[in-house]
Design a protein that fits this description.
Helices cover about 20% and strands about 25% of the residues.
């Protein structure tokens, strides 16, 4: 009797416990199987998540990419994010950013997709996606139209090059010289940015970024994606628009300026009997007339103020020759 009573009591206890735990288990299972959404839940206090700045209207544009379309206080934006080919509306889209279009950067190429943000100054801009000659358009949410900013005809179009995983450089050319605005397409992951110019062509030590030949006719952007002995990548800047002139002296840093021309010194001609008078110009030499009398003094040649050792040597040679002639004349007279 006691055993049966104990068994009956255990069964009742288990049934009650199962009834109490069933709602909790069901809730836990539902939470584990619920799809993950991109937008964080609003807190109990009613504060929006930190992702609200980057939330928008996601549209799948192909090749595993979605364009998150926004048109708020920051103006029209199209954040291109990689989600994979299995993505469908309602799935998470707050993932890796590969490109961003806005009023200052209106076109880009991602894979085989050519992207362009058009009518960016109107209330409803469009994102166009062209692939294999076919173009699809995606309207952005309605926003506030703004007048288009006047463009400077002497500023080139933007040339964008990728200088890192999330980092791009917008290259432009103007009368003030080359300019590179280096920035990240994902401020969440990397908010760092820097601007390089002709007068400040070098970046920080953390990243190898440099404008080579900044004052030359063909400046070049140089960068490294890794440190050490990794290769240096290069990209030329756009050309200055036709009809525009640089507001500085254009000169290539790698080409030294030519030295001023100099006149080479004349090589002295050898002394010969026919040009003695020209080679000894500037000297005062007394040449004996006829025979030289014994004991006659031959005046020493007076040389003009000069350092020409050749002229001095020629004068000394002539004096020795005249002395020899005088000695010969004296001997003939004594023998006669």
């Amino acid at each position: 009797m006691r055993s049966a009573l104990a068994l009956r009591t255990s069964l009742v206890t288990a049934a009650v416990a199962g009834t109490l735990l069933a709602p909790a288990a069901t809730s836990a299972f539902a939470a584990a199987t619920a799809p993950q959404t991109a937008v964080s839940a609003v807190s109990a206090a009613g504060t929006a998540s930190d992702d609200s700045r980057y939330e928008g209207k996601p549209v799948y544009i192909g090749e595993g990419l979605v364009a998150v379309l926004r048109n708020g206080a920051e103006g029209p934006e199209a954040w291109i994010r990689f989600v994979g080919t299995a993505w469908k509306p309602g799935d998470n889209y707050m993932v890796r950013v590969v490109e961003k279009l806005d009023r200052t950067h209106t076109s880009a190429t991602v894979g085989s997709l050519q992207l362009k943000l058009t009518h960016s100054d109107q209330a409803v801009p469009l994102l166009t996606v062209t692939v294999n000659g076919t173009t699809a358009s995606y309207p952005l949410p309605k926003g506030k139209a703004v007048p288009a900013e006047p463009t400077d005809p002497c500023v080139s179009e933007v040339k964008q090059v990728q200088v890192g995983g999330y980092r791009f450089a917008d290259l432009t050319m103007s009368p003030q010289g080359p300019k590179a605005y280096v920035h990240s397409t994902d401020p969440q992951a990397d908010p760092w940015s820097i601007t390089l110019t002709r007068t400040s062509p070098t970046g920080t030590r953390a990243y190898y970024l440099h404008i080579a030949n900044p004052s030359g006719a063909a400046p070049v952007m140089e960068w490294k994606t890794q440190g050490g002995d990794s290769p240096v990548y290069k990209s030329s800047f756009p050309a200055l628009p036709k009809g525009c002139k640089a507001a500085y002296e254009v000169h290539d840093d790698a080409t030294p300026k030519p030295a001023p021309a100099t006149t080479p010194a004349a090589t002295p001609k050898p002394v010969t009997p026919s040009n003695v008078s020209t080679q000894t110009k500037g000297q005062t030499t007394v040449v004996p007339q006829g025979a030289v009398a014994a004991g006659a003094e031959i005046p020493v040649a007076t040389v003009a103020d000069t350092d020409d050792t050749t002229t001095l040597a020629v004068g000394a040679g002539l004096l020795a020759l005249f002395a020899a002639l005088g000695t010969v004349a004296l001997r003939r007279r004594s023998q006669g």
